[in-house]
Amino acid sequence: MIAPEKISLVISTYNHVRKLMPDSPESKVRARAGNIGFSGKAADTVVKSLSGGEKARLLLGLATFYGPNMIILDEPTNHLDIDSRAMLAEAINEFPGAVIMVSHDRYLIEACADQLWVVANKTVTSFDGDLEDYRKQVMQIRDPRTPARERAGVTEDKPARAKEKRSSPKQKVAEAETEMARIAGIIEKIDTALTLPDIYTRDPKQAAQLTKARAAAAQALARAEEQWLAASALLEDADSA
User: Fold this and answer.
1) How far is it, in rounded angstroms, from Cα 218 to Cα 142?
2) 187-213: average pLDDT
3) Which CATH architecture has domain 4-114?
């Protein structure tokens, strides 16, 4: 993968592609720029004016320029906004080769990964299941006698209480609203992708991954809404006190 610092921000996408095709006519260079998502005048936009998602697309396009069979991505969504994450997921799914990705972004993993590997105890093993299955397995290993919800409370009780002491009801409401808006934006992007008329016939694998990602996002949104309701009740009690 090409590091971001290797990409010049003061020249255009066309110029970056031109560097890799020094002997090709302009028509071919522009056609190649179009293939990575920068058609027409978009290819002449300087990199510093591109959005985060467009920069990510450019990086992937340049990294895969010579048709590698595999690319490795390490936390590719760091510092990307919702739109950029959606575009990155689309670019990853369009890549015809293998992608090995290390990420804490659950939504990206749900949208793109078709195989999970667990690195633990000095070994790497394939995991037969999704992220939710893995979470349940980890909780079961920690304490097989305790229900998952109670175990989550035990492991997160102290940090959660500390956060409660630091955060006022008003802050909790604001935090929950921010989280709800973030997740709603992700769901909107997934829904937009799923409305493409031929996605289920053209790429059923991607459609299945997006459907799974939407279900996970919907669950996260429901949890955020519960937190908002609880925080709103606390705020109302505080105001009436």
Assistant:
1) 27
2) 78
3) 3-Layer(aba) Sandwich (3.40)
